[in-house]
């Protein structure tokens, strides 16, 4: 009997230690109050999902402030896994409007709404961002109306979330960060196609007190232009394979497909 008691006691102690370790790990994932930290939430490029990776999304944390860059499918689960309180996200930046970079945006916004957020959230991006957010508000208003009617929410969702089309140059600044946008070559539309001259892809430069972080979609070779047969040098995070089989060389600039 004493031996059995010792075994049980040992198991209880082990479980307690493991639980404490997991709790400590979860707490350590919370937003640090000082300095700059980048978390790559989703690194899967392209619209096809995989089991182990979410699609393009990143979180920049500056002095505790949360800045989302791209919102691909799976972003809310990744934020939750990282121990981030999504109700505290004030600003979202979209590099371009491919669905693997925006497919989780509606889920993120409705989650913030269901957490009883009352402060407005702003979504910044290239032309088309405002239209995208307005369309999402139309879809999510159905659930918002239901929740207001059953007494669980007070404010219509469309009064909390706003999209902003931005041109290149300085686009945002607060006490933590200064953000500027530059157009890159991720898009290369032939003349006469529906997107030609209408949509753009941006690289974002985030300047903080201790770091400079650049996030962008991987520039695509000008393969559609007969005058540009060579593959230009591009900056990317993991030297991904391009469609022509060649690879980009990393220059310390984060990127995603």
Mean pLDDT: 79
Helical segment count? 5
List low-confidence stretches: 1-29, 222-257
What is the alpha-carbon Rg in Å?
Answer: 22 Å
What series of H and E elements makes up the topology?
HEEEHEHHEHEEEEEE
What would you give as the CATH superfamily? Ribonuclease Z/Hydroxyacylglutathione hydrolase-like
Give the quaternary arrangement of the chains: single chain
How many domains, as an integer? Answer: 1
Termini gap: 62 Å
Mass-distribution shape: globular
What is the annotated CATH architecture? 4-Layer Sandwich
CATH class value: Alpha Beta
**Sheet with most strands: strand arrangement:** 1-2-3-4-5-6
Helix and strand composition category: alpha/beta
Q: If you consult CATH, what is the topology?
A: Metallo-beta-lactamase, Chain A
Strand element count = 11
Helical percentage:
25-40%
% residues in beta strands: 15-25%
Q: Report the biggest beta sheet as strand number plus sense, adding barrel if it closes.
A: 6 strands, mixed
Task: Walk me through this protein's architecture.
The chain is α/β, with parallel strands linked by helices and 257 residues long. It has one domain: Ribonuclease Z/Hydroxyacylglutathione hydrolase-like (Metallo-beta-lactamase, Chain A). It has five helices and eleven strands. The strands form two sheets. A six-stranded mixed β-sheet has the order 1-2-3-4-5-6. Strand 9 and strand 10 form a beta hairpin. The protein is globular and about 50 Å long.
Which characteristics define this entry?
alpha/beta, 11 strands, 27% helix, disordered C terminus
């Amino acid at each position: 009997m004493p031996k059995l008691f010792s075994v049980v006691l040992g198991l209880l102690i082990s479980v307690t230690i493991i639980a404490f370790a997991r709790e400590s790990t979860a707490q350590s994932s919370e937003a640090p109050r000082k300095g700059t930290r980048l978390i790559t939430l989703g690194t899967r490029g392209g619209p096809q999902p995989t089991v182990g990776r979410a699609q393009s999304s990143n979180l920049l944390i500056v002095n505790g402030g949360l800045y989302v860059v791209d919102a691909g499918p799976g972003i809310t689960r990744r934020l939750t896994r990282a121990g981030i309180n999504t109700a505290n996200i004030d600003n979202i930046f979209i590099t371009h409007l491919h669905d693997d970079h925006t497919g989780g945006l509606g889920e993120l916004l409705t989650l913030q709404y269901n957490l009883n957020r009352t402060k407005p959230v702003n979504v910044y991006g290239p032309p088309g961002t405002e239209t995208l957010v307005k369309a999402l508000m139309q879809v999510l208003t159905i659930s918002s109306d239901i929740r207001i009617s059953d007494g669980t929410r007070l404010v219509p969702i469309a009064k909390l979330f706003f999209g902003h089309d931005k041109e290149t140059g300085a686009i945002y600044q607060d006490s933590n960060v200064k953000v500027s946008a530059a157009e890159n070559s991720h898009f290369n539309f032939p003349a006469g196609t529906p997107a030609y001259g209408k949509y753009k892809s941006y690289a974002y430069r985030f300047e903080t007190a201790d770091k400079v972080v650049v996030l962008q979609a991987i520039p695509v070779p000008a393969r559609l232009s007969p005058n540009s047969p060579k593959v230009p040098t591009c900056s990317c995070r993991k030297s991904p394979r391009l469609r022509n089989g060649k690879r980009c060389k990393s220059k310390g600039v984060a990127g995603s497909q």
